[in-house]
């Protein structure tokens, strides 16, 4: 598979390229997995000094406003194009014509080049700046886009164009409406630049004066999550996007203030006294303009498609320290929700579910597990684990494997490194300790519920039993259906192998690692649509 | 004032030009009224044979996709541009590239030409086809635009562009999101063409087979109302558009089916047997595509700005008969709500308010007034009136004049012709006959409520008293305020001279002929903002 990344010399382009090379293969047209044969980085600026030396990567300096160059870039069928190149918000306000030429005409040049080929998949970075003037409350995918910058206007136009190109079958377009990706290691000029600076400058020990109101709420996400989500979006089966003619969706984000981020940095470093000093001299006009950007982007649709968000501002800060400053500045052990590769995807009084994906060569920060946990694995790969003050030990995980960790009595503090050949992909289901149950006053710390025998339900096989949970497996063949009475008080459904379904888990395309929580005994029926994919589920009964 | 109309050889362009010439002057930049010095009709097609011969009109055949030609067209400051030229929906689906080039690049060429001049006012015809996929129910201005045709996509992009050009002060843009304008006298090719054909073909005595589902609901408006609204939108003071960064709004419309229109035609003609026969052979694919267009456009904002809608499908049909077929085919007298120059703007169990505007040279159809009515006039002009079977008699009305007609006992059947020099502009307030009161079972036909004395309220002057109503006048100076206790059971406020206000009539820019209905005794306060305009109101007490 040949991949094109525009804005390829920029921060996001570089991160995306690195991750693609680590993974080495991607799912593309017809849901076929293909090895990455070539990654073309295209940009109008000078290449940075530390470009990747991988033989699969080529570099092209050029101008996206030149339609001929775009045609040359998309010179094969079935290419995957990540279009990240853009004039940013501040520059767009300063130079309308450039903003139009690059963001709108440039995007169209590239789309036309894709249209001239078969099977192009086109991933576009839109922006929460599209929202602009709107009612208070979270920004929803279904809301009208009424941008208040030329940058946002061009992005909103591109969203409309891509939907139409996709509708007509000119290309397979998918649009990620981005929150502000932070922290950028370079000093950048967009309106939301302060949301990077508040982390970056203090960590590099530089004093900084920020001109945005410290209490202004803004939707942000960490670079790792964004890169992962762009790749996830690019690899979604076309069937997962059916059912809506809108190819554009908000990416998951955190709604934070500059003060929140400043506090998060202090919380993850070993010695807050060594941080650069942050002072605020808010520019009211700039703050007002920025407040028309995304404050709190709702990403319900994206999350239902397997896209993930940072668990906390601390995770974003910690990731930056480890990647761009000096890991030794961090406190020695971070909490699970502060670890930047653990993405909280479900949380309720009974459990927390984290999604973890580590490409080969990558490793987590040293982190602490405090609760008893089930681990569900989705890939065959080799890893290495290191407990605090011990050496790395080799390990291997396999697709479908389930492990249990009894961490409530003795916390697990460790880090994991992926050796390969594939991404380490798992779900961590952490059970809230039984002595911390927030409800049911009559249950004291030592109260134990009477254990019932596992029920016999046709189709369900009990495959694991531990003090906090039982795990059953269920398989439904392609075109088949299943129904059963489930007597459980609380249960978690986890998708092992996905398919298009209708019934009790919604009318949707289920993908591996999708998670559903249900309460109360219920009758559940499931129909697996289509004749090709069978469905495999795990049902976790909470005890 | 120099005016440019693109698409000027088309049906709407021709109607608009005709009306502009009749009026002869328009309100433009700085709310100054200027004589129309030149109307340039620009189009890419061959000029029709019956172009206006007025010396103020010039014709230019050209291509809007040529930026240089656009620059030549906008060759003065303070021009008023009506941009109607467009590739329509059906053609856009057939030829995407042409649709993009004309609708998007062409519009931008023209906007750039406006930007290069000072004080350009840019009126753009967008379309309800912008809505596309959406939740059931009426289309609101505040809804997301998710078009399902390339035509709709380009229109939605232009809306975004115009908002941004207006925000940056490049031009004063105003966007009319059009329902389907019917009936077009020529055979046209857009997806909604059947909504014209159902009227046109039967009236010309031609049999027709329509391929749209007869029960498909669609938002339409008559050509007269649309032309009037485009001119009203163009002349709105800038202050009336403040308070929202969205320059785009739905035009008022009727939500009708082809069957509704077919019935309406039968109702207004003298002899339905002479109509051409309409048969339906619905194409489900076309009907499905059309159902993504506007079904029921909500125009609350436009109506609050003085834009009007057709009173009925019958009015649309009757107007077409009189203008394009043969007035003698009509039944001899139409009802008030069937008369195409009477626009119902308020209706409740107690009264109906019609707005009437007749330019010089125009005349109403012969119509019937059945209820006692107050008439409020807003311009000085001369008219002629003709009662059924009588001769035309000269008359004159003056701005601020109020008349009363006692039509319940003896219907008034008449028609009015405007001689000039100005548009005849009035509000007809028709009172529901007291023996038809829908509420209060104890009031028989002969029951009369005890007449109270008119209350003495500081600032209010009683200027007219009739059996059904008393009219008071109220003036509030610029920068001043007024408040009073109003003991009336039901009242109608009518704006005589407008101003920006806050208080009991909303925070808005009031314009002459704006109407507000209020029930129950209340305390009302009004503040007139700004130092230039004083406010003059009429208060109608319903007896």
Describe the protein in words:
- Chains A, B: Keywords: Carbohydrate metabolism, NADP.
- Chains A, B: This is NAD-dependent epimerase/dehydratase domain-containing protein.
- Chains A, B: Pfam families: Epimerase.
- Chains A, B: Residues 3-185 form the NAD-dependent epimerase/dehydratase domain.
- The structure is a homodimer of 543-residue chains.
- The first copy, chain A, is of the alpha/beta class.
- Chain A has 3 domains: 2-182 and 220-252, NAD(P)-binding Rossmann-like Domain (Rossmann fold); 332-434, Jelly Rolls, CATH 2.60.120.10; 456-542, Jelly Rolls.
- Chain A has 12 helices and 33 strands.
- Chain A has a 7-stranded parallel β-sheet with strand order 5-4-1-6-7-8-12, sandwiched between helices. In chain A, strands 15-18-23-20-21 form a 5-stranded mixed β-sheet, with no helix packed on it. In chain A, strands 16-17-24-19-22 form a 5-stranded antiparallel β-sheet, with no helix packed on it.
- In chain A, strand 7, helix 5 (150-167) and strand 8 form a beta-alpha-beta unit.
- In chain A, helix 2 (67-73) crosses helix 4, helix 4 packs parallel to helix 5 and helix 9 (258-268) crosses helix 12.
- The longest helix of chain A is centred in the first third of the chain and has 20 residues, at 96-115.
- Chain A is globular.
- Chain A starts with a strand and ends with a strand.
- Residues 435-447 of chain A have low confidence and may be disordered.
- The interface between A and B is medium-sized, with 24 and 24 residues.
